Amino acid sequence: MTKLAQSTILVVDDESMIREIIAEELALEGATVIEAEDGNSALELVRCTKFDAVVSDIRMPGGNGTQLLDGIRDLCTHQPVVMFVSAFSDLTLADAYARGAEAVFSKPFDLKVILERISSLLRPASHRLADAAGTTPTMRFGGRFSSLEAAISQKKVAFGRGGLVLFDQSEPHVGSPCSIDLRFDSGEILNIDGEGVVRWCKKGAAAGEPSKIAIELTYLSDANREQLLDHLKLDKIRAYLPNTP
User: Fold this and answer.
1) Strand order of the sheet with strand 157-159?
2) Which residues contact 105 (CB under 8 A, 6 or more apart)?
3) Which DSSP symbol is given to 68?
C-alpha cells in the first residue's frame, strides 16, 4: 500500500477539468480527495481539515496559490506537503521553494510523475533519504570547510527542509542528478555525503563569480543521515530550499 492510500489531499484549481483529472487519479490510488476552486476557499478548508498534501494552481481569482501557501505555512501546526502545478511563471522556482513549496510542475503535466512525487514526499525524510536514486549523477559538488557551523555562518551553504544551496563555478541544468561531498575539519558533523537533484541555478552576476545552486536531497549516506537531520532540525525550517546564501 502506498502512502497515497492513507492520505487526505486537497486539490485546488479554478479550472474544473484539470482539478477533476488530478482528483480522480489520486482517488484511484486510494487517497481521500477534497477539491477547491480558489485559494481563499482552500485556506478555509485547511483551517478545519488535516491534509497530508495540497496540490494547487498558482494563478487563480479569489486567492492565488502563493497566498494559499503562505497561509498554510503561517497557520498549520501539521504542515502538509504543498505542490504547485501551473502554466504561468508568476513565481520563480527559487521563490516557490523558499516560501515552502516542496515541488513545482508546469502545465501540461505528467500525472504519473505528480503521483510519484506526492507519494515520495509523504514519507518521513529519514526513510526517503535512505534510498539511493539509482541514477548516475552527471556532476559532483564538493567542498572543504573548517566546520558546518562556519560554512553556514559565512554564507557558504544554507539548508532548507529538502536540501541545500551552495556556490559553484558550474551552471548545471535544472533537473540534473548530482552527488554531494562536503567535508568539515571539526564539529559534530564531519561530512555530508549523498545525492540530489538541481532544482534551480542562478548564474553569478559578474565574470568569474560562482553560480548559486539549489539542490534537493534525494539520498544521504547511512554514516551521517540521522545525525545530520537531527543536528540541523531541518523539519523546523520554513523554506524547502532556501533562496540564500
Assistant:
1) 139-147, 177-186, 191-202, 211-220, 163-168, 157-159
2) 83, 84, 85, 86, 113, 114
3) H
pLDDT at residue number 89: 67
C-alpha cell at 105: 510542475
Q: Which helix (H) or strand (E) holds 184?
A: strand 177-186
d(CA 243, CA 10): 27
pLDDT tens digits for 53-89?
Answer: 999 999 999 989 999 999 999 986 678 999 999 877 6
Q: Give 1's pLDDT tier (boundaries 50, 70, 90).
A: very low
Distance (Å, whole) CA 177 – CA 216: 10
Rounded Cα gap, residues 214 and 47, in angstroms? 31
Identity of the amino acid at 7: S
pLDDT value of residue 217:
96
What predicted TM-score, i.e. pTM, was given to this entire model? Answer: 0.92
Q: Which helix (H) or strand (E) holds 153?
A: helix 148-153
pLDDT of residue 76: 67
What is the overall mean pLDDT for the chain? 92
Q: What is the mean pLDDT of residues 174-182?
A: 96
Contacts 24+ apart (CB under 8 A), 170-174: 170/139, 170/211, 170/213, 171/201, 171/203, 171/211, 172/138, 172/139, 172/198, 172/201, 172/211, 172/213, 173/198, 173/201, 174/93, 174/198, 174/199, 174/200, 174/201
Number of residues that this document lists for the chain:
245
Greatest Cα pair distance in the chain? 55
